[in-house]
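Notes from the 1:1 (GR / supervisor)

We went over the backlog. Supervisor wanted to see one worked example end to end before approving the batch request, so GR pasted a single chain during the call. The sequence is below; no edits were made to it. Supervisor asked that the structure be written out right there so they could see what the output format looks like.
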Amino acid sequence: MPYLGTTNYRPSFLFRNKHWSTIYPSVFRKIPAVVYQRERIELLDGDFLDVDWSRKNGRKLVVVLHGLEGSADRPYVRGVINIMNEVGWDGLGLNFRGCSGEPNRLSRGYHSGETGDLKLLLEKIISENDYETINLVGFSLGGNVTMKFLGELGPDLSALIKRAVGISVPIDLYESCLEIQRFHNRIYLNSFLKSLKEKVQLKENVLVDQVDLEQIFKAKDFFEFDGLVTAPLHGFSSASHYYKASSSLPYLPKITIPVLLINALNDTFLSETSYPIELAKSSKNIHLATPKYGGHVGFVTRHPNNIYWTEEMVRDFFLQE
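Structure output shown during the call:
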């Protein structure tokens, strides 16, 4: 029964528009500043991860993973950390490789199915701290990483990790890439490609002998870009192989802790396969909420403290323990 249906999210008329709901938070939202302390983690392969801590000397921690070309400084990340700080939880924003404001050292970067860095980070946190609970929140790409990670570990997951939430998660990457190529999504696609190509340009000296830079800068969609960059740099034979191997959809049945998946029905990035209703109905762990509105990582809410509906959902779901 963990299928929660369309829920009680009812935005004002303006924010029923999927594009306005998607664009508004990233451009106009102002939230209370989260005071971060940055930690750099040196990795065994010679690269590094930058993570941003917001400590409240709590015994519980929320780890938040951002979306494609985001960072721990995005309003949606700070919004979750802020509301969990208010109830005494520590917060940590993971910046994927190359997303902390400084190019990473290696030719490889991050991608939708890369769970190794998250696993290493959590092992480090557990070994160096005395938390009694560590919960995860992932947005979009970060949500796919979160769900895939939980399914990969299954019963071997640390007992300290009690719950997780995924918001606007493209659990079927291939079909979602087809969606974002549609004409009405072109503004988002172009923005993502511009950012991704700029990162390639910053690392030209590292990548020049490994990929075809000229063709990369001509790429017009994710299939072309991922086929030229993501796949060869991360051990996949093609973009399609990357999408199939990295999608979290087949890993959902293997998850052994309660998770909440929130995917708006009007999310302009998601395919029909990103709403696993039948799986949720038969699962004891997969709680699926499908609000009619919300857009992609939107869910704008009029609240006196500028708290969004999804942030309240995260807090309430985590406090059910």
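Supervisor's comment: The longest helix spans residues 186-202.
Batch request approved.
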